[in-house]
Amino acid sequence: MSLRFAADCVVLDIEGTTSATGFVVDVLYPYSRSRFGSLLTERAAEPAVRRAAEQVRALLGEPAADAPRIVQALNSWLDEDRKATPLKTLQGIVWSEGFARGELVSHFYEDVVPALRRWRAGGVRLHVYSSGSVAAQRAWFGHSAQGDLLPLVDGLYDTENAGPKQSPGSYRAISEAIGAPPGRTLFLSDRPAELDAARTAGWLTAGVRRPGEPYYAQGTGGHPEAGSFAGIDVARAGSGP
Ligand SMILES: CSCCC(=O)C(=O)COP(=O)(O)O
Ligand SMILES: [Mg+2]
Q: Which of these, 54, 71, 208, 220, has the minimum number of CB atoms within 10 Å of its CB?
């Protein structure tokens, strides 16, 4: 059964929704883990690295934490899959360089790219909102197995420029930035708590529930449910779904 929405734009979660969590955890996480040491020592003076290191110290409540202590904290957050903003910033630096060198190629479920093209051809704007940093998102969409998907995307949002994904205020901030009414904005995610926050902000929601993903057993928490993007029809509000 298809879900039908009248919406002007779609906002996409990545991990568990457009792409497999297993790929992120098995391929991307080890790639960043093995490079944090050199990033935090050899490149500590780079503004983005220095700023993220300060954010880690603040989160730890340890103003004097040195590079090995920061690396230890990052690795334990990786073990927990904690979506801490400085962890995501540092991963984004490492991953973008890996994608640019051709050492990484991103994964999208096979139903995703045809649906993105279909919705966009119908005049629907596409945005991304992920815990992964904007730099990581840009690299992810720019270096997929299906080619460069960035031309399909109108805007990228993360926990730095929008806020935490389980906070309704973040969705309000994105509505403000993209200039679309909340009631004509559809959020697709695998996590019920994110969908709840989006709905509180007045957005349309659909839970994407894919077998094998961590939130599959939990269900969508009462949000409309789709097993893949193939089962989601989006038409611009006013043009009839
Ligand atoms: C290109 S981002 C890589 C995935 C990632 O690190 C992440 O945290 C994604 O979380 P999401 O909010 O998309 O579920
Ligand atoms: Mg997700």
A: 54
Long-range contacts of 210-213 (CB under 8 A, 24+ apart): 210/16, 210/109, 212/20, 212/22, 213/16, 213/20, 213/21
Tens of pLDDT along 126-158?
999 999 999 999 999 999 999 999 999 999 999
* pLDDT tens for each residue of 196-234: 999 999 999 999 999 999 999 999 999 999 999 999 999
Alpha helices in 101-232 (DSSP H): 112-121, 134-142, 168-178, 192-200
Helices and strands per DSSP (H, E), number in the chain:
10, 8
Q: Which helix (H) or strand (E) holds 234?
A: strand 232-235
**129 in contact with ligand 1, CB cutoff 6 A:** no
- At CA 83, angle to CA 59 and CA 112, rounded to 5? 160
φ, ψ dihedrals at 95, nearest 5°: -65, -45
Mutate to test the pocket of ligand 1, among 21, 33, 131 (most ligand atoms within 8 A of CB): 131
CA distance 171 to 169: 5
Pairing of strands 3-6, 9-12: unpaired
Residue located nearest, by CA, to atom 5 of ligand 1: 132
